[in-house]
Amino acid sequence: MSALLTFAASAPAQIHIDRANPPQSTIEVRADQPVGALSRRIFGSFLEPIGNSINGGLSAEILQNPSLEDGLWSASKVLAMVRDQPSLAEASDLGLPLPWEPFNLQQGRRYQPHWGTALNSWRSLEIMGLPGESVGIKQTVYLPVQRTLRYKGSLYARHLSGGSEIAVSINRLNSPVPLTSVSIDATAPEWKKYDFVLSLPSGSLRRLEPADFAITVHSDERVEIDEISLQPEDAIDGLDPDEVSMAKAMHVSILRFGGNFTSAYNWRDGIGPRDKRMSILNAPWGIPEYNTFGTDEFLQFCRLIGAEPQIALNLGTGTPAEAAAWVRYIKDHYPGKVVWELGNELYGKWQTGYPSLQELPQRTTAFSEAVRKVDPDAELIATGQTPWDNFRLFNSAELSTPAGTFHYLSTHFIRNTNAVLLPNPSPDFRAISAFALPVALGRTLEQMQAHINEFPNFANKTHLALTEWLFTSRGPAPRSDNDLAPSFMNMGGAVVAAGIFNMLMRHSEIVPIANMTGIMEFAGIWKKRSQVFGTPAYYAFRMYSTADIDHLVKIDTNTGSYSVHNGTVGVPEIPNVPYLDVVAALNANGSQLTLFCINRSLTEAIDTKIQLHGFDATSLAHAEVLKAQSIYEMNDEIDPQHILPVPATLTVHSSQTSFDFPPASVTVVTFQRQS
Which of 182, 353, 501, 547 has the fewest CB atoms within 10 Å, i.e. is most exposed? Predict the structure, then answer.
């Protein structure tokens, strides 16, 4: 008996097998029967200043709080920081801003915060030297020594009295002896910028080893400092070169700059000279916003990776005039096309200044008109409700606006894969329920498009934009085996992500824009302890986005299916989920055929016969396979390439071949047409 049937018999209340995996599954590809064009914009991603996605991530800046401000973290974030690093509490008692510490705690109060005389933002810091001793501040840092040993930096200083020498160094953690150091003669009584370069000796620090960055004086100097910077010498326009390289390899078609921060974001805070931009609290996430990654930096990042910009406008605290000014600024500074999104999740009370349902249509219309006055050809996305959350009520308000107000209605897909209705679920049940979510999402998106088509002003002209899609669990480190579930970090998450791409390819005519959360962190690229790595879902994204495809062709499959009962909260019933999910596509000139295949079975490889019709293939086909021993395995900073796609070769005879798809895997197979 099939292992799939055995699983069903052991848990009859959980999974119903509609059709067992046959002895050999079949895929019939009818390459001469096109079934729909593909939108490349479904391979979009998402960027927001949350966690370390920008600051501490995409940004090459190594230091936290370089402007020496206070009030940049929420109380809960401060509690977490002090819990993880108790010495910060003593540093704060001495008047130092988080996460800076005294170079020598035993020296006591040799620091004085200043307000009103700062070069940047509101606060600067005076350091008061002691003859014969090293007095100063330090911060624990991780340096990408696996890539470079040279670091460029700068600081602003204002001489107050005494000597004028300032030392900048990188020390071994908690050691007064520098690994490398430079001296600055800061004699100017007014604010002046001082640049420096620090070169580490080869082998002085190991990858992932922490160090101290320190600024010290050694005599009777009294000096005021502000706006410090430390970056790898190989930074690209202030961006991490490893993250830029990995992002470029994704072939992201369109990149969204938006999120919960949007509803309180003033774009003017993020333009102009970087060392003059204000450091403020990112209130939605309780973390610092240094504003050094703003409009120009986002547009430059899009240029570097070849992505079309998509920007969410502030419909919370912002005004139509402010939005129009932002559009004008970008038109004057960026020659390419930009897609504009009218707000973010305006249905949510977590959005600053969210509108009531009665206010929504007028606000959407006013912003649309303001943007169109500047850019008559602007492509606009209005905020829509999420699937399964009574989308008809909210979307009807948006659809009551005049014809032409927007081109797309957004929706977001965010589900917790830990949360299921079944009492005491097994990890396998949570996994197989999560694997089914893309199937349910596709069916609901069809209902949402049908609802749009009920409104004459928008029927068959306006479509959906899935501007955030994410599946999460309680975190990448489960508290116990019973807490295990597919997450954006592990191999199980790659299976879910691939399922969403298969669904989007089938539905790209009604969902032509989609943004995976996110290009940095979540399902994308991470940086921990200065080591950059991609999640398994990142590699699944690349397998899809780099394929040479133009339109879908018809397929018939015989691969077995299952139904979920009492599954993921909000989506508990999902019938007829195929174990082997397959999409087939041709490139523009018909010379290449690509199959995108997902095996949702947790336990069985699916041995499958593949027959091609209308496509005379060469004798060898090539495949990439993404898999792991367990769906809970992941990449991390210790083993950044633990899970990668592996190549495989298929022998083709008379346009027929076979492949044994591994359990819980993602496979992309490419056939070439005989010339």
Answer: 353
Amino acid (one-letter) located at 234: D
> Are 516 and 45 contacting, i.e. CB atoms less than 8 angstroms apart?
yes
Give the domains, in start order, of the chain with CATH numbers.
75-232 (2.60.120.260)
Q: Residues 213, 182: contact at Cβ < 8 Å?
A: no
Amino acid identity of residue 434, one-letter, is: A
Say which DSSP state 58 is in.
I
The encoded tokens of residue 605 equal: 């490889």
Number of neighbours of residue 208 by Cβ within 10 angstroms: 15
Helices (H), 419-551: 427-452, 491-506, 536-545
Strands (E), 200-263: 210-217, 222-232, 254-257
What is the reported pLDDT for 177?
A: 92
Q: Helix/strand/coil (H, E, C) string of 325-352?
A: HHHHHHHHHCCCCCEEEECCCCCCCCCC
Instruction: Tell me the C-alpha distance between 524 and 488, whole Å.
Output: 8
pLDDT tens digits along 183-233:
999 999 999 999 999 999 999 999 999 999 999 999 999 999 999 999 999
Q: Which conformational region is residue 461 in: left (phi greater than 0), alpha (psi within -120 to 50 degrees), or beta? A: alpha
Strands 525-528, 531-534: pairing kind: antiparallel
Q: Is 511 exposed, middle or buried (0-12, 13-18, 19+ CB in 10 A)?
A: buried
pLDDT in tens, 255-292: 999 999 999 999 999 999 999 999 999 999 999 999 99
